[in-house]
UniProtKB/TrEMBL annotation:
The keyword ATP-binding applies. GO terms for molecular function: ATP binding; protein serine/threonine kinase activity. Residues 290-317 form a coiled coil. Residues 349-369, 414-491 are annotated as: Disordered. Residues 36-304 form the Protein kinase domain. Residues 466-482 have a biased composition (Polar residues). Residues 349-362 have a biased composition (Low complexity). Keywords: ATP-binding, Coiled coil, Kinase, Nucleotide-binding, Transferase. It comes from Nannocystis pusilla. It holds the Pfam family Pkinase. This is Protein kinase.
C-alpha cells in the first residue's frame, strides 16, 4: 500500500520522464542543454523530475533536475529558482553542491552533484531500519547539515525520509536535498554574492505556500498555526531519527505520549533514547538545539567506540595474561628409588639396551629445544611430556617413581624433527609411591628427573620432594584456568550460527527464495553483504524485490567481535 503512486497524474509525469530519458533515436539534439545525456529517472516530484545524467563535455555523472510542467505555475518557478540559490549559498559535505542553473526551451533545470545511496524511506520501515550506531552516524551528519542551513537564515521545513539520501557501508553517509519548500528570511540574501543585488521590494516570493502544516512530520506548534522555526526542524529531525532506528513513528495512533525507543529497539543506547524523546517534545522550548543534538550524538558515538575498544583491549590483556611456555630445569641423578620424579605417571618403553646415568648438574633450557648434548635432549623431552600432560588433564607436578632405565631410554629417543611421536602419559595407579622395576634382563640404576618452572628465588637450590597427597581426593590440584587468546577472523560456522537470528526477518521478505547463500565481510561484530545468491545486492532492481529486505536483515545481525576482517559465506534454508 505504501508503494502505490499518489495519482494518475503522477504516473503520467513518470512515464513522460522515462520516455525523455530513453528516446527511440538518440541524436546530438537529444543532449539536454547541449551537454547532458539523461540516463535514468531518479525521482518524480509534484512539479519536477530528477535524472541521473552524463555530462558529455566534462565526462562526469551529475544529477539533472527539470521543472517538467509544460506551463509551470509562477509560484513553482519561483520556488525552483530560490532552491537553486539556497544551494549556491551552502558548502557542506552532506548537502549536494550545485553546478549550474539554466533554462532549456521553456524548462528550467539545475545540475547538482550526484550523491550515491538511496532514499531514507528504504531503511525506515519496521522490517528494514538502521542499527543504533548507523543512526548515530547519520544523525551527526544531518545535524551538521541543518546547522549549516540555519546559519544562512533558512528554515528547511520539509524534513522527512523522502528528502534524505543514505549510502550504507562501514560508516553510512547521508545527504539532504530538495530545498523547494525551504523558507528564507531577509538575512539570507546577505550570504549571496551578487554583482547587482535585487532590492528587497523587487524580490519574487510565492503568493501561496504548499500545505506543509498538515504533514505528519509538522511540529505541534506549526499544526496549531504557529510559524516554522529552527525548533520545528528539530522536531521533524527527531521523528526522522526515530523512524530510522525503529521503523515506526514515536506517537501511536490516538496517543499523545511518545513511546521510548528502547521498548521497540532494545539495542538503543539509553542516551540516544533520551535525546530522541527530547527532540519530539511538544513544547518548542523543551527541545534541544541542533548544536546540542550534534554534541549528544558525538558523545554517544564516542561511548560506543570506547566500548568496542575496551572489548578489544580486554581480549588483548587476556591473551597477554595467558600462561606462557615455561623454562624447564632438568636434574638427572642416581638417587634412591623413593626420590621424586617429574610426572604423575612413569612411562615404560621396551628397550634393546640399558644405560645407567651418573649425577649431572641442572641444565636450564626452553621446553622443546633440541641441542646436541644428551642433557639438553633429555630436558626437551621431559619438558614436552610435562606440557602435554598439563594441557590434557590440568595437573601440576606430582610425585611418582620411574625406572631409571625407562627415563634414560625415553629421553634418549629425541633425535630432532624425525623423532617418533611420544605416547600419551597414563594416569597414576594405585601403586603410586612404590618402586617400579624395569623389564630388562640386567640390573639398572634408578634415576629421577624433576621438571619445574624456573624460579630465581630458588636458583641452585636442591629440589624439594613433593608432599604426599591422598590418592583419592588430593592427587590432582586444580590447574590455573587458561585465559582466552586473541581470536582471528570470524569463521563460517560462527557466522552461520549468528545469522540464524535473521531467518525470521528473511522469511518475511517479499518473493524471497527457499534458500539464501550470502557472502559477507565481517569485522568488529558487523557484517556487510557482498553477494546474495551469487549476485551483488540490487535493492532497486524489480527482478529481485527481496534483495533490500534480505540485505538489511543480514546486516542487522550481531556477529562475534573480531578486529580481523574476513569474508564468510553463509547458507540459510528458509523453507
Amino acid at each position: 500500500m505504501s508503494h502505490r503512486l499518489p495519482s494518475a497524474d503522477h504516473l503520467r509525469r513518470g512515464l513522460e520522464a522515462i520516455l525523455a530519458a530513453h528516446p527511440k533515436t538518440p541524436r546530438r539534439e537529444h543532449l539536454f542543454g547541449g551537454s547532458f545525456d539523461r540516463l535514468e529517472v531518479l525521482g518524480v516530484g509534484a512539479s519536477a523530475v530528477a535524472f541521473r545524467a552524463s555530462d558529455r563535455w566534462l565526462s562526469r555523472e551529475v544529477a539533472l533536475k527539470v521543472l517538467r510542467d509544460a506551463k509551470p505555475s509562477e509560484d513553482d518557478a519561483i520556488r525552483f529558482h530560490r532552491a537553486a540559490k539556497i544551494l549556491s549559498a551552502l558548502r557542506h559535505p552532506n548537502i549536494p553542491q550545485i553546478h549550474h542553473y539554466g533554462i532549456e526551451g521553456r524548462e528550467a533545470f539545475t545540475i547538482t552533484e550526484l550523491c550515491p545511496g538511496s532514499p531514507a524511506t528504504d531503511v525506515a520501515g519496521p522490517d528494514k531500519h538502521l542499527r543504533p550506531d548507523e543512526v548515530i552516524a547519520v544523525g551527526r551528519q544531518l545535524a551538521s547539515a541543518l546547522m549549516a542551513v540555519h546559519a544562512v537564515d533558512v528554515v528547511y521545513r520539509d524534513l522527512h525520509a523522502g528528502n534524505v539520501l543514505i549510502a550504507r557501508g562501514e560508516k553510512p553517509r547521508a545527504w539532504i536535498f530538495d530545498f523547494d519548500h525551504a523558507q528564507v528570511s531577509p538575512g539570507f540574501y546577505a550570504h549571496l554574492t551578487e554583482r547587482w543585488a535585487t532590492p528587497p521590494e523587487a524580490r519574487a516570493e510565492p503568493t501561496s505556500e504548499k500545505p506543509l502544516r498538515n504533514m505528519d512530520y509538522a511540529a505541534p506548534e506549526v499544526r496549531g498555526g504557529g510559524a516554522f522555526t529552527a525548533a520545528s526542524d528539530v522536531f521533524a529531525f527527531g521523528l526522522l531519527l526515530y523512524r530510522l532506528l525503529t521503523g515506526l513513528r514515536p506517537f501511536p495512533p490516538g496517543g499523545s505520549e511518545p513511546v521510548p525507543a528502547r521498548k521497540v529497539c532494545p539495542e538503543c543506547p539509553p542516551g540516544l533514547e533520551l535525546l530522541l524523546l527530547a527532540m519530539v517534545n511538544p513544547s518548542p522550548s523543551g527541545r534541544p538545539t541542533l548544536r546540542a543534538v550534534e554534541e549528544a550524538l558525538a558523545a554517544e558515538e564516542e561511548e560506543l567506540e570506547a566500548l568496542e575498544c575496551e572489548d578489544a583491549e580486554a581480549e588483548q590483556e587476556a591473551a597477554a595474561a595467558a600462561p606462557t611456555v615455561p623454562i624447564a630445569r632438568v636434574v638427572l641423578s642416581a638417587t634412591p628409588e623413593s626420590a621424586p620424579v617429574a610426572s604423575v605417571a612413569a612411562v615404560e618403553r621396551p628397550t634393546s639396551s640399558q644405560a645407567a646415568t651418573a649425577a649431572a648438574p641442572p641444565v636450564d633450557l626452553p621446553i622443546g629445544t633440541s641441542r646436541e648434548t644428551p642433557i639438553a635432549r633429555r630436558g626437551g623431552m621431559w619438558g614436552l611430556l610435562a606440557l602435554m600432560f598439563a594441557v590434557a588433564v590440568g595437573v601440576v607436578v606430582g610425585r611418582v617413581t620411574a625406572s631409571g632405565d625407562a627415563a634414560v631410554q625415553l629421553a634418549g629417543e629425541v633425535q630432532g624433527a624425525d623423532a617418533p611421536m611420544m605416547p600419551s602419559p597414563t594416569p597414576p595407579s594405585s601403586t603410586e609411591g612404590k618402586p617400579r622395576t624395569s623389564t630388562g634382563d640386567g640390573p639398572t640404576k634408578p634415576a629421577t628427573a624433576e621438571v619445574a618452572p624456573m624460579n630465581s628465588a630458588h636458583e641452585g637450590a636442591p629440589p624439594k620432594p613433593a608432599q604426599t597427597t591422598d590418592s583419592t581426593s588430593k592427587r590432582t590440584p586444580t590447574s590455573r584456568r587458561a585465559q582466552p587468546s586473541p581470536r582471528g577472523a570470524v569463521t563460517t560456522a560462527e557466522a552461520t550460527a549468528a545469522a540464524q537470528n535473521a531467518i525470521k526477518a528473511l522469511r518475511a521478505c517479499r518473493d524471497v527464495p527457499g534458500a539464501i547463500t550470502a557472502d559477507l565481510d565481517v569485522v568488529r561484530g558487523k557484517g556487510a553483504v557482498v553477494t546474495l545468491n551469487a549476485r551483488a545486492p540490487a535493492p532497486d532492481d524489480p527482478r529481485y524485490p527481496w534483495h533490500a529486505c534480505a540485505r538489511d536483515a543480514l546486516e542487522r545481525v550481531r556477529f562475534p567481535v573480531s578486529e580481523s576482517a574476513g569474508r564468510v559465506r553463509v547458507r540459510l534454508p528458509l523453507e
